[in-house]
Write a structure and sequence with these properties.
The structure is a single chain. By secondary structure, this protein is of the alpha/beta class. The protein is about 25% helix and about 30% strand. It contains 7 helices and 19 strands. Strand 11, helix 5 and strand 12 form a beta-alpha-beta unit. Helix 1 packs parallel to helix 2 (about 60-75), helix 1 (about 15-25) packs parallel to helix 7 (about 290-310) and helix 5 (about 155-170) runs parallel beside helix 6 (about 185-190). The protein is elongated, with a radius of gyration of 21 Å. The N and C termini lie close together (about 10 Å). The structure holds NADPH dihydro-nicotinamide-adenine-dinucleotide phosphate (NDP). NADPH dihydro-nicotinamide-adenine-dinucleotide phosphate (NDP) binds near residues 120, 178, 241, 283 and 284.
């Protein structure tokens, strides 16, 4: 091992990255964290988090992420603003280039770069993001209790989110662009058996409507050309997520959607010494607490790996 190299380099600053940093710091791995474009990760795009254990009255998402960051720093993590722009995982230690041109060398790497929800790309959708437009029903559904909402998409996520919302909301419209759902049969059946879900087949969103208080409706266009509006308070996107794994694809195995593959319950990737945590390796759960848990596992795996090489 190279004496001047970083023992544990963590890429990403969501719950997975900061938790990995907390554990790695306590294990004396002197972790360095590169925070990326969005310090705090996806959570910072939402408002109050009510399902992160330990906060009986909920917690502001930015406060939660700020606290995780402060905890990592207090324990000795070197948290740096900056983007990793390239990696070379064929050399030991690994070579990692950051956006100021510096090339770092790391004995272990924890990839915690997360995933980003896909949006339709409408200006009105952008305008009301966080004010009625959300890409996470589990995070924000609670705020729409007893109200009418819409979910865009016809995959497993859309069906899951629609059935979740149906328990809370008066009415859930699913906006589906084709005349079939992409979701598995079991998920389709759950949707069909839920009386307060109505599927709007062969419909695309033209515009999210709203006022100073947030979303009030949606204007849709059917394949037939008919344009119509529905009154809603919440507009949920469920058209897929994009794991941020492109930088590593030359070396690290992913599934067909780009999610990094890890070995069993561990965070080990196919490259020894490289570990993955959080949403970049998790197409299923995508929750802050789940990401934090996997960040913990990645730091423990990195520690064990370093000890095994001594
Ligand atoms: P998918 O890619 O499976 O589905 C995306 C859905 O969004 C499709 O219905 C697609 O329509 C629609 N869509 C995409 N782009 C647009 C657009 N621009 N406008 C309107 N609609 C659009 O993504 P998911 O997130 O649902 O699932 C990802 C993976 O995770 C899948 O493999 C899924 O099986 C898995 N998953 C499994 C779960 C489980 O087992 N419990 C839960 C959640 C996800 P179209 O069909 O026309 O392309």
């Amino acid at each position: 091992m190279n004496n001047s190299s970083i023992k544990c380099l963590i890429i990403g600053s969501g719950p997975a990255g900061y938790t990995a940093a907390i554990y790695a710091a306590r294990a004396a791995l002197e972790p360095v964290v590169y925070e990326g474009l969005q310090p705090g990760g996806q959570l910072t795009t939402t408002t109050v988090i009510e399902n992160f254990p330990g906060y009986p009255d909920g917690v502001d998402a930015n406060q939660l992420m700020g606290d995780m960051r402060a905890q990592a720093i207090n324990l000795g993590a070197d948290v740096r603003l900056g983007m990793v722009t390239a990696v070379d995982l064929s050399t030991r230690p690994f070579a990692v280039t950051v956006d100021d041109g510096t090339i770092l060398h790391a004995e272990t790497l924890i990839i915690a770069t997360g995933a980003t929800a896909k949006y339709l790309g409408l200006p009105s959708e952008e305008k009301f993001r966080g004010f009625g437009v959300s890409a996470c029903a589990t995070c924000d559904g609670f705020f729409y209790r007893g109200k009418d909402v819409a979910v865009v998409g016809g995959g497993d996520t859309a069906c899951e989110e629609a059935t979740y919302l149906a328990h809370l909301c008066k009415k859930v419209y699913m906006i589906v662009r084709r005349n079939v759902l992409r979701a598995s049969k079991a998920m389709q059946e759950r949707v069909m058996q839920t009386p307060n879900i109505e599927i709007l087949w062969e419909c695309q969103t033209q515009e999210v409507l709203g006022d100073a208080n947030g979303v009030t409706g949606v204007r849709l266009v059917r394949k037939s050309g008919e344009v119509f509006e529905k009154a809603i308070d919440g507009f949920f996107l469920a058209i897929g997520h994009q794991p941020q794994s492109d930088l590593f694809k030359a070396w690290i195995k992913t599934d067909e959607n780009g999610y990094i593959l890890t070995d069993g319950k561990s965070s080990r990737t196919n490259v020894e010494g490289v570990f993955a945590a959080g949403d970049v390796q998790d197409p299923q759960y995508r929750q802050a607490i789940a990401a934090a848990g996997s960040g913990c596992r990645a730091a423990l795996d990195a520690e064990r790996y370093i000890l095994s090489k001594k």
